């Protein structure tokens, strides 16, 4: 809320320079090592969500392009999978290093195309992207030690479909383990954030990666569906909505395709009465307002013990009043733009439903920029488990607050969801952390912290949050014939 | 007169084969049975023809049992699985006869199957407190955090037992599911369900809590369909499904994103090869827990 005069902290604008990145007026598909037009000549525009400025015009992949890309990946598979692991490793190390070298450029690019604050792309996305490639690079010549047998084999061509919330990071989560294990890749970035994947294509070129090993197909859902259904794809990896995840699971039924799905969530952040309030407040803010809440593992349900509800909410509201929303390229910005008009409409409609169903809505005084897609940090109290805002994934900066009295009640409420991706626990009592963590049906549990990620740490959900794990030794399994 | 009665052969007592659900032995709620014959079409018994309602009842029983079974110590689960092997050993002759009749095997070949099945229980009994160390562990994250990944059971698992291997195959699909703390609803081989129904009697006397394993007999397709679509079933093992049925069930299973183990090629020796850990890991979730490590600097601990 840079312009809110009530704020105790006024900051002068501190914009990161965009001159560090050179966005071409148009981009092609990246197939078999070459940029190429779509077979039917279709293109689409990608805009900056914070200004609605058109950043570039990008070729739009269709079924025919999927065919070409899969063919290229299949052709490249023979020699790529036959390379000694130590040679594949060196390609991945090269990629990791080039990403580090170009990280400032990529951070600005990602912020422009996605709308998230430069603080996050610079300090979270890009370091994690480089680390992910560095981590899996080292596995490429050690697969026999990974616990999947002496000589685990790659699957073949991996079809990968990724979302717009962490475009380059999700690309890294998909491509790094796939290449390390000897697979080749056809990846479709999201239609609202194609640019960083296309810059990654250039990094592959700089690294001298053999052509066809990585193919990038910007496009819409139809291209993703064609890729998933392609008979010569051996492995499907998807991150995105649960509804699309279920459709993919139906598509691959009866085939030999191996599948990993990383889907939605409705994470519970549980705060007990003995929690360190200031740290918990930071964790709650990080849990739901990181990346504008457009995070599958967001802590979107705050479960607070009744006896400290008032104290915690007072602190939380005070903290929210100091968040700065605005220009994502400003280094002081905490809250950036919502990624698209569609996503903004979805958030708005769920928030409206929350109000209509009787929950109490609160936002700090917050001036929204006049152009672009914006949503103020929002908090709902008086929320019941039946409210849509407590059940549906909002994927926006909206926190639903519920209360509990006993640890058993907290666990029951936390688990009362078809999702099971993440959860948080805040308490000073170690045995309570372990007891509650043990009962939560979720793949990632953050205790006295939230939204921490690391390439060595397996990530993925229980129940309808999907299956398979990405990251760590566990992440190799999805790309091996085991 | 007394001489005459002594020459009449004693009439044996037939067993009424029943389902095994929630630790009890109900008939099918539908009241239906079907004839089970040996390989030469000789009548062996009437087996319950379980209905969709029986399947749903079994899910309720399996869900009810999940909390305590998954919460039991791994050591305790191991002892109970070993107890199953002990009970099977005592009923060895019965199972040899049932397997011989079901699969048309000689007595010695059937005995080999039963022995291998008992040994497999023992093998899985030993796995309960080791699998977490093999597939879990600490992760060296780049920050001041303790980070631990541990396997946890997926939940309620529907198991379509193999159609051919009525006992060794059956044991090979049940034991790995429950060793790790899942609970199971098992659909017995359609043609040869009797060893599976007898296994229920063994499980009932092995300290295995009721509901951990539930055994249904009948038409595989009829029972499997409601299980694959059931919102409170977390996973399905399609071993006993043919290609068409497996595809249909996998589509239905997508509705709540069940974990699906597709039919795997069976080794030539018929389930005798080292099974590896794959049938356990198919029904495990990985949970990763983070906690700050703090520091012991002059400023004290820090989150």
TrEMBL record, chain A:
Pfam families to which the protein is assigned, alphabetical: Aldedh
UniProt xrefs under InterPro entries: Ald_DH/histidinol_DH (IPR016161), Ald_DH_C (IPR016163), Ald_DH_CS_CYS (IPR016160), Ald_DH_N (IPR016162), Aldehyde_DH_dom (IPR015590)
Single annotated GO MF: oxidoreductase activity, acting on the aldehyde or oxo group of donors, NAD or NADP as acceptor
Segments forming a coiled coil: none
UniProt KW keywords: Oxidoreductase
Start and end residues of each Aldehyde dehydrogenase domain: 36-481
Family, similarity comment: Belongs to the aldehyde dehydrogenase family.
Protein name: Betaine-aldehyde dehydrogenase
Species assigned in the record: Streptomyces mangrovisoli
Lineage: Bacteria, Bacillati, Actinomycetota, Actinomycetes, Kitasatosporales
Automatic annotation (TrEMBL), chain B:
Domain of life: Bacteria
Gene3D superfamilies named among the record's database cross-references: Aldehyde Dehydrogenase, Chain A, domain 1
Organism encoding this protein: Streptomyces mangrovisoli
Span of domain Aldehyde dehydrogenase: 29-261
GO-annotated molecular function: oxidoreductase activity
Name of a matching Pfam family: Aldedh
Keyword match Oxidoreductase: yes
Protein name (record): Aldehyde dehydrogenase
């Amino acid at each position: 809320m840079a312009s809110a005069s009530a704020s105790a902290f006024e900051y002068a604008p501190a914009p990161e320079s965009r001159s560090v990145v050179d966005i071409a007026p148009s981009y092609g598909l990246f197939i078999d090592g070459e940029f190429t037009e779509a077979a039917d000549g279709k293109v689409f525009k990608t805009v900056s969500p914070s200004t609605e400025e058109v950043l570039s015009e990008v070729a739009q992949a269709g079924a025919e392009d999927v065919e070409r890309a899969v063919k290229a990946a299949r052709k490249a598979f023979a020699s790529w999978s036959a390379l000694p692991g130590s040679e594949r490793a060196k390609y991945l190390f090269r990629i990791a290093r080039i990403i580090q070298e170009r990280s400032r450029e990529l951070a600005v690019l990602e912020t422009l195309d996605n709308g998230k604050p430069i603080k996050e792309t610079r300090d979270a996305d890009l370091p994690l992207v480089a680390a992910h490639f560095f981590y899996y690079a080292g596995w490429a010549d050690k697969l026999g030690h990974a616990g999947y047998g002496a000589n685990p084999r790659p699957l073949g061509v991996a079809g990968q479909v990724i979302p717009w919330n962490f475009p380059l990071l999700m690309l890294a989560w998909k491509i790094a383990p796939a290449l390390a294990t000897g697979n080749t890749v056809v990846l479709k970035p999201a239609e609202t954030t194609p640019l960083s994947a296309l810059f990654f294509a250039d990094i592959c070129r700089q690294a001298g990666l053999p052509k066809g090993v990585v193919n990038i197909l910007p496009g819409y859902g139809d291209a993703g569906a064609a890729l998933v259904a392609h008979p010569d794809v051996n492995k499907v990896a998807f991150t995105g909505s649960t509804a699309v995840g279920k459709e993919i699971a139906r598509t691959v039924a009866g085939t030999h395709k191996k599948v990993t799905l990383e889907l939605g969530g409705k994470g519970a952040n549980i705060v007990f009465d003995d929690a360190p309030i200031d740290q918990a407040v930071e964790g709650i803010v990080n849990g739901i307002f990181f990346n504008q809440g457009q995070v599958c593992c967001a802590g979107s349900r705050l479960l607070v013990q009744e006896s400290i509800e008032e104290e915690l909410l007072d602190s939380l509201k005070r903290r929210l009043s100091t968040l700065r929303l605005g220009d994502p390229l400003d280094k002081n910005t905490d809250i950036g733009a919502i990624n698209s008009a569609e996503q903004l409409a979805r958030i708005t409609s769920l928030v409206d439903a929350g109000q209509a169903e009787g929950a109490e809505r609160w936002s700090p005084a917050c001036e929204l920029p006049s152009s672009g897609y914006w949503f103020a940090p929002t908090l709902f109290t008086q929320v019941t488990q039946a409210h849509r805002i407590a059940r549906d994934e909002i994927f926006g900066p909206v926190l639903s607050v519920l209360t509990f009295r006993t640890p058993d009640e907290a666990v029951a409420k936390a688990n009362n969801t078809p999702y099971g991706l993440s959860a948080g626990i805040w308490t000073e009592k170690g045995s309570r952390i372990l007891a509650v963590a043990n009962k939560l049906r979720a793949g990632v549990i953050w205790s006295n912290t939230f939204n921490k990620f690391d390439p060595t740490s397996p990530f993925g959900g229980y129940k309808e949050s999907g299956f398979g794990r990405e990251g760590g030794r566990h992440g190799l399994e999805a790309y091996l014939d085991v | 007169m007394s001489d005459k009665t002594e020459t009449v052969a004693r009439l044996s007592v037939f067993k009424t084969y029943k389902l095994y659900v929630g630790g009890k032995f109900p008939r099918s709620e539908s009241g239906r049975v079907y004839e089970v014959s040996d390989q030469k079409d000789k009548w062996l018994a009437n087996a319950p023809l379980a209905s969709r309602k029986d399947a749903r009842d079994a899910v309720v029983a399996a869900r009810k049992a999940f909390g305590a079974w998954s919460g039991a110590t791994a050591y305790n689960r191991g002892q109970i699985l070993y107890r199953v092997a002990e009970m099977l050993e005592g009923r060895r002759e019965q199972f040899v006869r049932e397997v011989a009749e079901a699969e048309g095997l000689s007595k010695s070949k059937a005995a080999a199957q039963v022995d291998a099945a008992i040994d497999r229980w023992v093998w899985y009994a030993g796995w309960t407190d080791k699998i977490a160390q093999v597939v879990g562990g600490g992760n060296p994250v780049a920050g001041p955090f303790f980070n631990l990944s541990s396997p946890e059971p997926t939940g309620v698992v529907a198991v379509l037992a193999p159609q051919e291997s009525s006992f060794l195959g059956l044991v090979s699909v049940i034991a790995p599911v429950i060793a790790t703390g899942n609970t199971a609803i098992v659909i017995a081989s359609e043609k040869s369900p009797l060893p599976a129904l007898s296994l229920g009697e063994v499980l009932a006397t092995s300290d295995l809590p009721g509901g951990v394993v539930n055994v249904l007999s009948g038409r595989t397709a009829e029972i499997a369909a409601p299980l694959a679509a059931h919102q409170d079933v977390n996973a399905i093992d399609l071993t006993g499904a043919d290609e068409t049925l497996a595809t249909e069930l996998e589509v239905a299973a997508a509705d709540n994103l069940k974990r699906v183990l597709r039919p795997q090629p069976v080794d030539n020796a018929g389930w005798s090869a080292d099974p590896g850990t794959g049938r356990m890991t198919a029904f495990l979730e990985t949970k990763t827990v983070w906690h700050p490590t703090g520091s012991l600097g002059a400023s004290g601990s820090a989150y």
